[in-house]
Amino acid sequence: MEVYVRLNNDVERDFAFQVDSEDTINSKIARVFLKGGEGVSDIIVLRPTIFHKKLPTGYSKSMHPGYMTEGGCLIFDYDADLKQYKQKLDPEKKLMDQLWPGQLILPEWERSTTNIIIYVALMLVWLYTDLPDVISPTPGISLTNQLSRIAIPILEHFELGHVADRLKMEIQVNYTGLAAQWLFFVVHILKIAVLTMFFTTAMVNPISFNPAVLYKIRNIQLTDPKLRSLLRSLGWVGARRGTYDEYQGNLYSYIMKKYGDPAKAFRAGMIKVAAAPGFPLGEGEGFQTPLAQRLTGSTFKTIKDEGKFVLSEEYFIQLEDDLKKKLDACQGDIGEMNNEIRRFRRFGFLNQVKN
């Protein structure tokens, strides 16, 4: 079966993985985060930020019921990772005994005290070097001044003495006025604040600060047989589950394409569907269905009798049958079949929507 794993603790990075009947967290999912050819964390950034440890400390599953699409499939709600919906997974127990197909696995991340201390120390040192000369115990040691001192002999070598003389003047202590010194220091504080924001929000989340490592990663070919073999062994499908906003945007485009324009879609009664498709499931529905009812429960009977949507083997067999019909309709076109499977893994069915 396929399950989804949230990478980088990011709602937009819920990737599909295939697990076999005997697979556990330790034998399959945890391997993804290893290095040295056992996993992919040395070539792909998986942790949330540079301030987190590279390995998860544990794994939970999301027990949020889910969000029902217009095509009768489930996507993950934005609240799926809230604490009240998390349930710890046993790392040694079979995943098939702990999860529904398509359920979300949430790695648990711990902040790295070492990384935080190193970052704070570097920022404080950088801040110290840019202290205004009037208060600095060691004036004139800013990074800009150090670069100027390196540049001066180079400029003189190339007979650019007028530029070198200008730099010599600028690196003199108290060359700039008092107001300018404090203004530059405030700007420096703002630079550090912005840089810290980029790192804490993962807008910048490098796999390494080592240029040699970055160069090596850049030269990795996705067609490398060893890499492809590793990804297969990890169950990495490469498909990502879409968010609600992505689903709504794609469904809106599909409906507009189908009906031609908003006016025709309105007359067909599809504008409201396109604007706000699907609905959130309630308590006891969706992924909150007890796993013990997998073989004994009936999705369609429960909908008819109780008006509730529960998961069951019956439901997944129906999904599989519907997908097979759509693939048969592709008439052997491999590209279209791949697109249909990719679309199903991301949003479920879009073209199940009927007026």
Automatic annotation (TrEMBL):
TM stretches of this protein: 179-199
ATP-binding keyword on record: no
Gene Ontology MF terms in the entry: unfolded protein binding
GO BP annotations, alphabetical order: protein folding; protein localization to cell surface
InterPro entries membership: Gsf2
Keyword Transmembrane helix: yes
Keyword field: Membrane, Transmembrane, Transmembrane helix
Pfam family, one: Gsf2
GO annotation, cellular component aspect: endoplasmic reticulum membrane
Listed name of the protein: Glucose-signaling factor 2
Source organism per UniProt: Torulaspora delbrueckii
